[in-house]
Design brief:
- This protein is an all-alpha fold.
- Helix content is about 40%, strand content about 0%.
- It contains three helices and no strands.
Amino acid sequence: VSNDETYISINNMAYLVKDNFNNKINIIHDIDLNSNYAPDTLLNLTSKKLQNLGWKPKYNLLEMYKRLINYLIS
């Protein structure tokens, strides 16, 4: 199931984790981000059909990471 409001690039996700959970993480880009590398693409993942049935996401991406990390360390 996707949450339409949690789209984020892998690069930005790395910084989200670093900034919120461990600022000692060293993010290394092994590609030139200014090169002709493929642009970000928004995948067409949607939960619209589930939402039409009354489902709605409970957590944003940061909260999902917090819950996952708490689960893994417990």
